[in-house]
Amino acid sequence: MKLSLPTTTLAAAAILALAGTALPPALAAQAACPTPAATNAKPTWKHGTPEYNDFLAITKATDPGTKAKLAAAFAQKYPDSDYKNQALQIEMSAQAQSPATRADAVKTAEDLTHASTANGGELLAAYTVIAYLQPTLVQPTDPDLANKMTALTQAATCGEQLVSSAPAAQQAQANAIFNKALGFAQLNSKQYDAAVTTLTKAAQENPADALPYYWIGVAEVTKPTPDYNAGIFYLAKASDLAPQAAAISAYLNTVYTTYHGSTDGLQEVLATAKASPTPPADFKVPSKIDLQNAANMAAYQAALEKQRNTLPPEDTFAGIEARLKRPELASAEWKKVKGQGYELDGIIKSITDKTADIAVGSDENAPADVHLILFTPLKKLPKVGEKVTFSGAADAFKPNPPDASATFLLTMNQGTIKGYSPTAEKSGGQ
């Protein structure tokens, strides 16, 4: 008996466009992957009209739940049918349509991968379902997580091997699914660097999908040496692509505020992520420690600036020096100081009978800050390093123009050094 189904019925059995691709059995997988069976070019209805009618009923069912039940019943009733694998494909396709039965779709797909009669197209359809659905079903607290990630890795790896001989358009579609699934498995197996590499491929293959970016972000901030800049960028990219996904937005906010200390700047990060698929070279989110260090440095600099701006009293030599070194104060100060006489204490740094270079104050290591031109040449010279009291009138200063960073020197004329200058001659000169 030869019975046939309409071509449209067979097309309806396909889960994805990929599922209809019959791949040659010569495409052998690695040791962990089953070898595809040869495609049965002439399937027959081994059980005659009852088998045909049962299969036809599957294809005519419009309700996904009914279709899945009929397909499951067919596979159980006719375990040796040439159409059993097609029935399993229809069953997992129908199950995949409802969130409540997607776990069943994964189970059916796993059964199909264990079928020794499954050809390349049927195996590829099953691997695609597993790779597409399992990441949406598994929970981090699942006690069987490790085994499920191993199975997911196999599905992604074997599927990618099978699709390599498919048309280019189908390869692009499938590789995005398989890389995404493999990256998810690597992430949950704590292979963080491998996950970032694989998920980056998935993001490039399907840049509109938020999940690869989200999982890259999770990997970057979870690995032993976290990269929070990259992690926050990719979490922001995922949030931008899926603004309706509250879980992604919430996780981004948690990571960002924990690292940065507040939500300040987050909108700018989202805008940057929106404009680029990868972090710009200069992208950086300052951490709480960075911000605290910057605040501490700013406070320190402010204190230094305040100290610099706090001038000594203007009736002291230090006050005169400080003001003459400030460009904005020097002119007014010099009008007050020029020609005025001062008596000061200091230490001789160098001496001749006509001039003396003196360091005002008592610091023996300080450089000279007064050049004293003596009113009357000295007959007896004080020693270098000797503490003296001297007087004179302000005549010039340098640097001029003023420079707060340069060495200051005030020139005084009509100078005398107490105990060394002849007082009678000084008095007679005035």
The largest beta-sheet arranges its strands as 1-2-3-5-4
Largest sheet: 5 strands, mixed, barrel
Strand segment count: 5
Q: C-alpha Rg, in Å?
A: 44 Å
**Please, how many helices?**
17
The share of residues in extended strands comes to 5-15%
* Element order: H for helix, E for strand: HHHHHHHHHHHHHHHHEEEEEH
Low-pLDDT windows of residues: 1-31, 425-430
- The amount of helix comes to 40-55%
- Morphology: rod-shaped
Oligomer: single chain
Q: Which structural class should the secondary elements be placed in? A: alpha+beta
Structural description of this entry:
It is built from 17 helices and five strands. The chain is α+β, with helices and mostly antiparallel strands and 430 residues long. The N and C termini lie far apart (144 Å).
Q: How would you describe this structure in keywords?
A:
OB fold (Dihydrolipoamide Acetyltransferase, E2P), 5-stranded mixed β-barrel, 430 residues, alpha+beta, 53% helix, rod-shaped
Summarize the helices and strands and which ones pair or pack:
Blueprint: H1 7-12, H2 48-60, H3 64-77, H4 84-96, H5 102-113, H6 120-137, H7 145-163, H8 168-188, H9 192-205, H10 210-222, H11 228-241, H12 246-260, H13 266-275, H14 288-309, H15 317-324, H16 327-337, E1 341-351, E2 355-360, E3 370-374, E4 387-398, E5 409-417, H17 423-429
Parallel strand pairs: 3-5
Antiparallel strand pairs: 1-2, 1-4, 2-3, 4-5
Helix pairs in contact: 2-3, 3-4, 4-5, 4-6, 5-6, 6-7, 6-8, 7-8, 8-9, 8-10, 9-10, 10-11, 11-12, 11-13
